[in-house]
Design brief:
This protein is mainly alpha-helical and 403 residues long. Helix content is 74%, strand content 7%. The strands form 2 sheets. The protein has a 3-stranded antiparallel sheet, with helices on one face.
């Protein structure tokens, strides 16, 4: 039987909290009422993100799964199936897993008369603010199936971008890991055995060989210190990375990096254009759409600028003029937004701008990975070649002495 966490008021007015087992949210409310408690908030136990149960982490819902479920829901609603029946059908055909459990909880909320947007909002670890806001706008405008179709397309595009980036980075990361492992193995196990011959010979060694021997001795004697320092830095970063000041500093630095900076900027602009345009065309007000789009962009430097833009629009400013004051937004985007504002097609212009920057991002990633792969191979070759030269040069010197 499911377990629910609740906070409620006693008849005397005191607030209490705890857990209760019940078949559904309604059943939990009825049981609390029988105990003389008036429910303030009830939620299924374990819906928090990343909660651990019995040393087992919750498996999340991937973007492709969410996109597919959204498209199926849009198809059912487009076929005149009521919302409750559509969600029930999705929940029944879904394979056992986290998404099936979530759809079951959404169905129970719908059974109690909660709107679909609010039912989704109770699962923030899966349905973010932009998703909920667009669903709410679709319910208010009577075009829920159309909004869900747009949402599905947006999620599919985001999933495709994430997949391309992951695929592009897989080979370079593998090369760096393998190359680093090979070098550590050579320095820790192979080089020390070869160096013994040179030390016994007591001949003058080349500088490159002396340096290699020093590095090898260091790893032999102080490998535990390297491990401790690496673990300490990892733990320090894990503790600091959630602090707002550190996150803002990291996002500023990333934007200034020679190769990664332009890529991050294009990705942020693509997400901003897509998300803001989609929110506006779905009927979300401009101010709320800017707030949600700032969260979608993720980069905090862009977030701070968008918050300033929101304040200027509240005072009567125009979006193109407000964005144009920041160097983070290129003239192309400003021009397209200005044209959209004059022609009454701001939403479509934003979506087109987002698609254009998305194409630029994909092209830049493809070009960058095509250049990075041979550079990594060259770097590994130079590293291995340096080791080989450091070993062969003393051997050549010994041969000359024997002759």
């Amino acid at each position: 039987m499911p377990t629910f966490r609740y906070s409620a008021y006693k008849a005397a007015g005191a607030e209490v909290s705890g857990t209760i087992e019940a078949e559904s949210l309604r059943d939990a409310q009825m049981r609390l009422k029988k105990e003389g408690l008036f429910a303030k908030d009830i939620s299924p136990l374990g819906t928090e993100t990343g909660e651990v149960r019995g040393w087992r982490l919750r498996r999340g819902v991937s973007l492709p799964e969410q996109a597919l479920a959204t498209r199926r829901l849009a198809t059912l609603l487009g076929s005149s199936v009521p919302v409750f029946e559509a969600v029930s059908a999705l929940q029944e055909q879904e394979r056992p897993g986290e998404l099936k459990n979530i759809l079951g909880r959404v169905r129970e909320r719908l059974r109690e008369g909660v709107p679909l947007a609010r039912a989704f909002a109770a699962e923030p670890h899966v349905f973010n603010d932009s998703y909920v806001a667009m669903v709410a706008a679709g319910e208010a405008s009577g075009a829920l199936e159309t909004v869900l179709e747009r949402l599905a397309e947006f999620l599919e595009d985001q999933a495709a971008i994430r997949s391309k980036v992951s695929t592009a980075l897989a080979y370079p990361i593998l090369m760096m890991v393998v190359g680093g492992g090979v070098m550590l193995f050579l320095l820790a196990f192979v080089i020390p055995k070869i160096v013994v011959v040179f030390e016994q010979n007591r001949a003058a060694l080349p500088l490159i060989t002396v340096a290699l021997m020093a590095v090898s001795h260091f790893f032999q004697q102080w490998w535990w210190l390297v491990v401790i320092v690496a673990c300490g830095l990892a733990l320090l970063y894990d503790r600091l990375r959630h602090r707002p000041a550190v996150q803002e500093w990291r996002d500023r630095v990333v934007l200034r990096l020679p190769l990664a900076g332009p890529l991050v900027q294009k990705l942020a602009l693509a997400r901003l254009g897509r998300a803001l345009g989609l929110l506006l065309v779905s009927g979300v007000p401009m101010i709320r759409a800017l707030e949600i789009a700032a969260e979608v962009v993720a980069n905090r430097t862009y977030r701070s600028v968008l918050n300033q833009v929101k304040a200027e629009i509240i005072e009567g400013g125009r979006l193109s003029a407000s964005l144009g004051r920041s160097p983070l937004f290129p003239p192309l985007l400003i021009h397209m937004i200005a044209v959209g504002e004059r022609g009454g097609e701001l939403e479509q212009m934003l979506i087109r701008a987002g698609a254009a920057f998305e194409k630029e991002f994909e092209t830049s990633v493809t070009r960058g990975m095509a250049l990075l792969e041979p550079l990594l191979v060259l770097g590994m070759g130079l590293a291995v070649g340096t080791v080989v030269m450091a070993v062969l040069l003393p051997i050549f010197q010994m041969n000359q002495l024997i002759k």
